[in-house]
Structure formats: C-alpha cells, structure tokens
Amino acid sequence: MLNLVSLPEIPTAAWKRPLGKGWEKPYSVRYASNLDDGPWHGMPLGGFGGGCIGRSPKGDFNLWHLDGGEHSFNSLAACQFSIFEQTEDGSAQAYAMATESPRDETLSRWSWYPAEKGNYGALYPRSWYEYKDVFQTQLICEQFSPVWAHNYQESSYPIALFEWTAHNPTDKPITISIMLTWQNTIGWFTNAIKSPVVKVRDDGSPVYEYQSKWGESEGNYNQWIVDNFRVGCLMRRDYENPGEGDGQMVIASITNPSLEVFYLGKWNPAGDGGEVWDYFAMNGSLPDIEDETPAQKGEQTATAMAIRFTIPPGKTRKIPFILAWDLPVTEFAQGINYYRRYTDFFGRNGQNAWAMVRTALKQGDTWRENIINWQKPILERSDLADWFKMALFNELYLLTDGGTLWTAATEREPIGQFGVLECIDYRWYESLDVRLYGSFGLLMLWPRLEKAVMEAFARAIPTHDDTPRIIGYNQASAIRKAKNATPHDLGAPNEHPWQKSNYTSYQDCNLWKDLGSDFVLLVYRDYLLTGAKDEDFLRECWPSIVLTLQYLKTFDLDNDGIPENSGAPDQTFDDWRLEGISTYCGGLWIAALEATLKIGAILGEDTAIFASWLQQSRAIYHQTLWNGEYYNLDSGSGSDVVMTDQLCGQFYARLLALPDVVENQYTQSALSKIYQACFLKFHGGKFGAANGLKPDGTPENPEATHPLEVWVGINFGLVAFLMQMGMEKQGWQIAEAMVRQVYENGLQFRTPEAITSVGTFRACHYLRAMAIWAIYGVLTEFQG
Known about the structure:
Elements: E1 15-18, E2 28-29, E3 44-45, E4 52-55, E5 61-65, E6 80-87, E7 92-96, E8 118-123, E9 126-131, E10 138-144, E11 159-167, E12 174-183, E13 198-200, E14 206-208, E15 221-227, E16 230-236, E17 248-254, E18 260-267, H1 274-283, E19 302-311, E20 316-326, E21 329-331, E22 337-339, H2 343-346, H3 353-379, H4 386-394, H5 398-401, E23 405-406, E24 418-419, H6 432-438, H7 440-445, H8 447-460, E25 465-470, E26 477-481, H9 515-528, H10 535-553, E27 565-566, E28 579-580, H11 583-603, H12 608-625, E29 642-643, H13 648-655, H14 664-680, E30 692-693, E31 710-711, H15 712-724, H16 728-743, E32 754-755, E33 760-762, H17 772-779
Parallel strand pairs: 2-33
Antiparallel strand pairs: 1-8, 3-4, 4-5, 6-7, 6-12, 8-9, 9-10, 10-11, 11-20, 12-19, 13-14, 15-16, 16-17, 17-20, 18-19, 21-22, 23-24, 25-26, 27-28, 29-30, 31-32, 32-33
Helix pairs in contact: 8-9, 8-10, 9-10, 9-11, 10-11, 11-12, 11-13, 13-15, 15-16, 15-17
C-alpha cells in the first residue's frame, strides 16, 4: 500500500490562491440579517445528502453541514493535519497545517504553518494543498470525495480522502510524520429546539430558530482500531436506535512494515494541546495510549494518529488518510425522520464508519480515476478558457454544500428524494423559479435526480393547504398553498419537505405568473434533453401540467390569452413590480404552451384548449410589447427599462426546438440592447449585467433593489442565450466578468444570488448560479 509515485499534477484550470492569503476588500453582505461568514471558504468534502465538511484555503476545517438543511460555520482547530520533518543532521520542525492559530488561545503549544508558503487549488470535487519553502520535503495533500457524473451510489458517500504525497529532492534521507487529529463531535448536529418558532426576518423572509448542540460532548468516546493493514480512531457515543446527530465519525490510514503508526486515544482540545504536541514536535510520535473513557458533562474529547516514515533521497511516497462519518438519520419537524441515501449501501444503524474506511482504502484510487476521466474531456478542450472550466466544475460545490437532502430509496422513490436549498438565507428546497436556471448541472450530470425533483413538484401541484399566514412583503394574509398552483418550493428543513410545499412567505407565491410555466418547461426539458424516451416521466407529470396551466389561466382576467401580472412582484424578481402582460412571464407562458402541445402529442392527449390559448397569446404578445428596439417590461407600467432576462421564454423555446416565441430579428435586437444598456453601460461591464436599466444605462429608480443588482445565475442564463444566438464574443465577456467578480473577491464556494456595484452581496450559497452549466450545454450537448 506504500507506493513509489510522483507528485500529483494540479490541473491548470483549478482555482488557485496562496495558502492563508487574505482579501483586501472582500464582498460583504448587503443586509445585516443575511449570512456572511467571510471569505474563508474552500471546496466542501462529502457526497450528496450525507452532510459535508468544508476546509478553507488557510487549511482549517470550518464549515459543518452535517445536519440536513442547517448551517454551522466555526473553525475547529483540533481537526487538523500536522507535519513533522527531521533531516539526517537531526534538525527537526513541526507545524499544524493551518495558517492561523485559534482565536480562543487553545492549543497554544502548537506551531502553525506560515501564511503564503504554498498554494491552495480547487476543482470540485478535488482540491489540493501544496506546501513550499518551509519543509525540505515537497508536500502536496490532494483531497476529494467520490463524486462523479451519472453515479448514484458513491456520490452519496459521506467520505473524504486525503492523499499526502511527499517527495525528497535532497541527497539525504528525510523522516516525515503526518498526524491527523480530530475532535469528537458526535451528537452536535441536531436542533436542540425541537419545536422551532418561525419568525419574519427584516427582509420579509420566514426564518426559524436553529440551535445546534455544538460542544455537547457528554458520553462521547474514542476507540483505536487495528484491522489488518488499516488503522484508525473511531469516534462514537452509545445509543439504542440512532436519531439525528447519532452515529460515528472516523479518521484512518494504513500501516505496513515501512511505516510507524502512533496514536493517542483521548486528549483535551480545549487545553493547550501539550499532550499531543510535546510528543509530536519532538520526534513525530504519539504516546500510544488507548483511552475509551467517555467525556464527562462539559468536557471535550479529541483523538490523534500519526504515520511516520523515511523517504530515501530522490524518492516519493504517498500516504492516504480517510475521514468518514455515519450519521444515518436526518430529522425535519420533530418525529419526521428520513434515512440518508448512503444508508442503502452501508446500513442504517449508525455503526458503519469503519466499513466506509475499508471501502475507501480499497476503491479510492478507482474513485479518483473516475473523477479524472469524467472531467478530462472538458479540461482538454482548447476552445474553452481555464477560468470557465474552473467555474464550471467549482459551481457544482452546491450539490454537496447546499443543505442537500438525498433520502434512501423506496419502492415509490427508487432513486430516493433529492433537494438543494435555494440558499442558506432562504432555507427551503428546490425553489422552482430559481431552478429554471440552476438545475442544468443536475440535468446534465445526474438526470435521474433531476427527474425525481420534478416528479415531487408534480405530486405537490394538486395539493392544497388553507393555513393562513402573513405575507412578508405587504403584511397581507394568504393561504399557504392553493389547489393546482405550482408551488414555489418543496418545503423547509423544520417541517416536512416534499409533503408540505410553499414554505416561503415573502410573497404569496400562489399568485406568481411564472411558476406554472416553469414547471411545464422543465418537465419537457428533462424529457427531451435526456434522450426523449422516458414517456413514463411525462405521463406521471401530465395531469399536473393540465391542472397548473388551467390554474394559471385564471389570471387572464381580460381573456386575451395571456395571464396578467398584478402590479405586485409576482414572479422570480420578487421585489420588482410588473403590471399587465409582461415580456418575462408572457414569453414563458407561450413557450410552456408550445411544450404542452408536444407532450400531449407524445402521450396522445387532447390539447385543443391549450392550442387555442396559444393562438390567442401569439396574436398579442409581440405587438403589445415590442417598442422597436427591445421588448417593454410590461404593458401596464409604462416603464422603458431594458430587462436583462426579458426573453427567457424565447431561450427555452430554442433550447427545446419549439417554435420561436418571437422572430429571430427581434431576439437579436433585444439582446444587443441588453448587452449595451445592462452590461457595457453598467460600470463598463466590470460587474456583469444588471437586471434592468434604462436604455442609456441609468437606473429608473436609484433606490430599487432587484433591477440594480447583478444576479449571477441570470447572467449565466443570459450568456447561454447569447451563445445560442451566435453572439459568443459578447457572451464570453459577460461570463468572464461574472466569474472574476465571484472568484477574485472572496465569494468562492458561497456564490451569491446577487452582487452590487458597491461591493455587497445578497443570499450566498445560492442555487441559481449552477446555470453556468446551461452555457456548456448550449455550446456542446444541446446543439442539434
């Protein structure tokens, strides 16, 4: 298991940053009540739906999404790799491999790695820590989880692999010891408030109380395990049947005759760390003490292991470490429990972390090759810039990090149920208006999960919930879910996702004019772009297509064929008032009716009523809204704003080979106007395209919110549209501006919904940004 190897090659497309280098002026949050953990975010570790752990470019483990749908951000200094190096002359040095010491002054005996002595690289799901100019040994730690396209088993595993490669460039042997320490956090990740109160935040969004059991370690203990060539420390707590937060966590590595293994079963991570560091810094060892004593109330417990070996001159060694966690249950409302997808392969009793170690050590090399082979065709394309390849893969981070749910399979759900939060601030699942853009990655890479989400929406449409509640935007009262309305979302972690939809209450989403059309277009998209063979999928969704279009048509108050916007923000731009027929919602409506005719023809269903609505709509849409250069915002407000996303319906029509919503010459003219007014005239294109500006690039209302924001996902959608229309030069300009704003200003791995020209952002960890995959799709898979 100890191989002669070479140093790993870090792809040129990886996002790179000097280790521990700060940001002079990173973006900061726009609203004080919104989440802003600062810029220290790195690629998350873990598969989909089993929870994830984030490790930052300064080397600390600081993001803990181990409770389904919940967010904890806090650096745990005891969770850390450390390196000891001794040369032949006896000189030695040791560092914990994070560039910042704990702010609470714990572990004061430890030495911390100096900043900017090496580089961090990330290309999801792999990332690298390359250390330079401190040790004589050349050291790279590559870390990854087994996530790759079209894989529905390993992509769910809550496993992280760390492959340490050490090369001796000198002419004398060097002794290295790699230590991994970890704090026992079993039991921490569940809501201590079992009936959380839902409140309305200052921005009008619902938010519920969440208080993890952070630091409650009573009863936790650590067990040293030797299993043939596998060694590790198992962190656990005794229980009868696992509830949320119960289970195991493990750190592990290998042993053989050329390696020395050391361990310390229990130590105090709240102290100065001397019981670990005094041994390790002296000679790379640990005292080899087993201690399975459970932590007392108020006590913390951690464990440690180290692997020591000597590297001959000019040789290279590779040592794998495994981090795995088995927390099989996720709880929503009290008593609403689901098993996670990975339990289909490892069991459900929460006692299977060591089985994960065995699997990872056996299959880790194959997993890594599978990731490389998946990414290779894209990375080798000479016609795509490295910055685009970087963002394309790294934006998939949200599938691990986004409060992701992936439940165990059932007879009804053979792939399980899946969901990603709209974002951490708007904590509800799979917001449909957002996933109209942000679901392209899931569609192209894990299409069975994409269809599972849409089937969940199909089941939710006929349901109703007459519970009254206060709407945050205007304090009106409205029922939660109208029968046959397409819900905005599939529910929130504090209730019962999939069963209780329409969690958001900022607006009354029963009145929205885009959701029903979005549903129809996504169903047909998911059918057509996955081979156009899955008629069972269409048939399952068809009854809800009929119901929701009939529901949406009730908002056509003048019976001219197109449902009118109400003069309130009743679509995805939910701070932006549209009145009468709107270009945005009307175009989506026409495209959805065209898609319905196609679906009906495939299934042999009667679509005459939809054909008549379509004929009416087409007769008035262009003539009502075209102003000679672009399409007006709507027919009722009198606004001359150029809306960036005015022709989303036309984009979808072309994507799905449907008849154009508007003729080609009008599309070209409108896109040219958008490019000029919303991109070039908005701070010279530096920030991307703003949502809506006057033709001269000035704001209609300088106090407006959404029109003056730059939405990352909307920009990527616009770029895909420009590519679709042959305007590649303009598209790449906008895409590059957008990527640079995110990845050069401390927004990496927390991509927001919106940025502003004054360096603020709103709603980080946002779903819509995965629309970058629409760009790649239009350039490649969706052609022809």
